[in-house]
Write a structure and sequence with these properties.
With 161 residues, the protein is mainly α. The chain has 6 helices and no strands.
Length: 161
């Protein structure tokens, strides 16, 4: 019991040290970054990419102590899930492009799996129509929020019968 408490404390200390190293590195990189020498549009893209990188690193340091087996299982499940959703998004992209309702990049970003913020960042980086991409993601969110309780109620009534 005592050994488990000591191990837990050591992991927390390692995580705190890793987080502190990350913060110091982040501060040094941001102090050295000089975005003034590039055109305005690329400055924004570089700033967004730097922010995404540091957010990812900040999240990643919290996975200290995860075993290789756990990581492999979760990553493989995530890859399979993304591939299924990417195939669905590609199908809808083909349908939208074939119907002439949008270009392929914007259509794929609109139907691609992922959060609204991430797809917005990708739309900015690729130069896609933000309104098209964001409207589709907001519509998806509203449909899920409104539709989930309706479907759950329908399924509950069906089980009772």
């Amino acid at each position: 019991m005592l050994q488990a408490a000591v191990t837990l404390f050591e992991r927390r200390e390692q995580k705190n040290v890793a987080i502190e190293r990350f913060r110091r590195t982040q501060q040094r990189v941001m102090l050295r970054a000089d975005f003034r020498q590039t055109p305005t549009k690329s400055r924004h893209v570089e700033a967004i990419l730097a922010a995404q990188f540091f957010i990812g690193c900040g999240i990643g340091v919290h996975f200290l102590g995860v075993t290789w087996g756990e990581l492999t299982r979760v990553v493989l499940a995530g890859i399979a899930y993304v591939l299924v959703l990417a195939v669905l998004a590609a199908g809808f992209t083909g349908l939208v492009t074939w119907a002439g309702l949008g270009n392929p990049v914007e259509a794929f970003l609109a139907f691609a799996p992922g959060g609204q913020a991430e797809m917005t960042v990708l739309a900015i980086v690729t130069g896609a129509d933000l309104g098209f991409v964001i409207t589709h993601h907001l519509t998806r969110i509203v449909l899920v929020i409104v539709g989930a309780p309706l479907v759950a109620g329908f399924m509950a009534r069906r089980r009772k019968d």
